[in-house]
Design a protein that fits this description.
single chain, 189 residues, alpha+beta, Immunoglobulin-like, 2 domains, five-stranded antiparallel β-sheet, three-stranded antiparallel β-sheet, 3 helices, 8 strands
Length: 189
């Protein structure tokens, strides 16, 4: 067999295989093979869909280190727990840190995927019933903060409010995945 015939045979074989796969998928999805013809139980993932809980976000710690009279270093440690039976993929957390209703810092952990070709380097998998810890740090300038608020921060007496949105994908059934963007509002301590 020469090279041309071998190429034609492999192309035709690939087309035939793809056609066979399409027919099988059609037959399985069309309901032709249904339980009234065959005594086969049908497995449903509906129970998984009905019991899917959102992944839970909490603040594990927030520390402040004073650099000088006008600058502090804030490190925030967030904890994410996945109570579901499937792995969730955290894409991004966007947050703002407030004290006395004034924003003192904002940040982003990860990055929201834009499409099929985006890098998945900043995706964080959270396995079933698993927990991950994520850290971020920011320099905060005193700028226009009132003396009272600045003294709370530097004296470690502040009550911080952390607000924002987290985005994740979760497998629901088969190859299907659901996306969720959830707002959050947390206090620390």
């Amino acid at each position: 067999m020469n090279k041309k015939m071998a190429i034609y045979a492999s192309v035709l074989g690939g087309i035939g295989g793809a056609t066979l796969a399409a027919v099988v998928i059609f037959v399985l999805n069309s309901g032709i093979l249904n339980t009234r013809y065959f005594n086969v139980g049908q497995v449903s993932n509906q129970s998984v869909l009905d019991t899917t809980e959102p992944i839970r976000l909490s603040v594990k710690n927030l520390t402040v280190t004073q650099i000088n009279n006008k600058t502090v270093y804030i490190q925030i440690i967030l904890k994410l727990h996945n109570p579901t039976p499937a792995t969730a993929m955290l894409e991004a957390i966007q947050y703002n840190v407030l004290i006395d209703t004034k924003r003192i810092a904002s940040g982003e952990i990860g990055g929201k995927l834009g499409g099929f070709v985006d890098s998945q380097a900043q995706i964080y998998p959270v396995i079933s019933n698993g927990t991950i810890v994520l850290k971020d740090a920011k320099l905060v300038q005193r700028n226009m903060l009132a003396d009272n608020s600045w003294n709370k921060i530097t004296g470690n007496k502040a009550i911080y409010e952390i607000i924002g949105t987290y985005s994740y994908r979760q497998q629901t059934s088969g190859l299907q995945a659901s996306e969720a963007d959830r707002d959050f509002k947390l206090k620390f301590p």
